[in-house]
């Protein structure tokens, strides 16, 4: 028998916009996955640079020119941020795995702590290590 109540069903959450507002915890969770994959790209760039150093001076000069260019510096800066963000988000998940701070207000506070903490630690790392 066909469903005659189609108009009374709730809408799916895929309809982002006026129908669905992403929560901070879902956005930070998605960003954790993105930063994890971005760290793989940065690690491959560092491995490429090290392999170029062992290959010869001409190829190393090419690879070093790329890594120390403005684009390479940007990738490395964002990698430092991604590393801090991913680390702090991992600590947040360890807290949740112990069934702590699962209330909505505390979970959102942890999300803001991850976002702000990763920014502060990134700036601190770049200033100290530069």
TrEMBL record:
- Name the residues that bind heme: 86
Q: Do the record's keywords include Transmembrane helix? A: yes
PROSITE patterns, from UniProt? SDH_CYT_2
The keyword Metal-binding is assigned to this record: yes
Q: Give UniProt keywords alphabetically.
A: Heme, Iron, Membrane, Metal-binding, Transmembrane, Transmembrane helix
Assign the protein's first listed, main location to one coarse class.
Answer: membrane
PANTHER family tied to this protein: SUCCINATE DEHYDROGENASE CYTOCHROME B560 SUBUNIT (PTHR10978), SUCCINATE DEHYDROGENASE CYTOCHROME B560 SUBUNIT, MITOCHONDRIAL (PTHR10978:SF5)
Protein name according to UniProt: Succinate dehydrogenase cytochrome b556 subunit
Q: What is the lineage of its organism?
A: Bacteria, Pseudomonadati, Pseudomonadota, Alphaproteobacteria, Rhodobacterales
